[in-house]
Design a protein that fits this description.
This protein has six helices and six strands. With 191 residues, the chain is an alpha/beta fold. The protein has a six-stranded parallel beta sheet, with helices on both faces.
């Protein structure tokens, strides 16, 4: 699979490179665009401030420009938290998208969004301060209405960005389960 993997509001941290390495070791081609011009942040608040200062439209433009040279190949869009919201937006707008892998995040869905059976897999903590139960229920129903084929995996007691070993949220057991399930999902897209 050809995978476009977007980073969180912390920026292109070592965990993103490690995730890309894991995916490449499983036989996938992976791109990890840097939407933050090399900046990384030590807190969610700093990262959010940067995204607000830069602007959502500019960050989406950067993401589209990063994905455009590869979209003809049929990309799987993936991302961590903020990066998952970017991945979701791009996948719902790309009729050649092969799949959507969301780690720790979702996004609003345009009213006119429509896909034809797009495989979507979401991995999220339970509870998650950024992905509340009410929000996730509404998101799941809206994604279903777009025509997506959605699977949701919840991880009780894990922190928001539990796959990043460099953050306090890290939960090794939940992270390993996430990667095992996600790699199976990606493998299923190849058949």
């Amino acid at each position: 699979m050809n995978i476009m993997l977007f980073h969180s509001v912390y920026g292109p941290r070592p965990a993103v490179a490690a995730a890309a390495g894991r995916l490449r070791a499983a036989g996938h081609e992976v791109w990890t665009p840097d939407l933050f011009d090399g900046r990384t942040f030590d807190s969610v608040e700093e990262g959010v401030a940067y995204t607000e200062e830069t602007g959502k439209d500019e960050l989406l433009k950067r993401a589209v420009l990063a994905a455009a040279p590869y979209s003809e190949r049929g990309l799987v869009y993936a991302g961590f938290s903020f990066g998952a919201s970017v991945a979701q937006t791009l996948a719902l707008g790309d009729d050649k998208a092969r799949g959507l892998l969301l780690l720790h995040g979702t996004s609003d869905i345009a009213e006119n969004a429509a896909v034809d059976g797009l495989p979507v897999q979401l991995h999220v903590a339970e509870p998650d301060p950024f992905e509340t139960d009410d929000w996730l229920t509404a998101w799941y129903l809206r994604m279903g209405r777009t025509g997506a084929d959605v699977e949701v995996y919840r991880y009780a007691g894990a922190g928001h960005l539990y796959t990043d070993p460099g953050l306090p949220d890290h939960d090794g057991e939940a992270a390993e389960t996430t990667w095992r399930v996600a790699l199976g999902f990606l493998e299923s897209l190849e058949s």
